[in-house]
Amino acid sequence: MIEQPIGVDAQAQAAYVIFWAVYAVGFLIFLYLMGRGLKRLPVYGVRTLILACLAVLLLTPVQSPEVVNWWIPAWLHGGYESILGNAAEATRAFSNMTLVAAGVFVIWILDLVRVRIWRREA
Questions:
Q1: Pairing relation of β-strands 71-73 and 61-63?
Q2: In terms of CB atoms within 10 Å, which of 7, 62, 67, 112 comes out highest?
Q3: Short-list 114, 109, 118, 119, CA closest to 49
Q4: In 3D, which of 76, 82, 50 has the Cα closest to residue 64?
């Protein structure tokens, strides 16, 4: 059972869970289709870098300032707050994305090293 944040009714909590479920399924379908489309690129590193950037862009969360324990996609929150002129919130969202991008970049480099070693042995 998901713990319900204080001040949020059950209907809002259900909508939150449904949103994330639909968002996750939509992302998986999008990533699958992009992966099939990117197979035409001859360089493995470029394909995986594009997919990693999409994952960082679309999956990085930021905690909601209005409701405790609710998470929002950082691109959505940062873009919305940028349009509204709230620079502090937009900076918080985009800095989250920057930190996640740095972590994913390290993982991407390690994956390239793994592939290089695997191909050398084969």
A1: antiparallel
A2: 62
A3: 109
A4: 76
Within 10 Å of residue 96's Cβ, how many Cβ atoms? 17
pTM assigned to the model: 0.82
**Mind listing the pLDDT tens digit for each residue in 96-108?**
999 999 999 999 9
Q: Measured between alpha carbons, how far is residue 21 from residues 15, 67, 79, 80 in Å?
A: 10, 19, 22, 22
Distance CA 23, CA 11 (A): 18
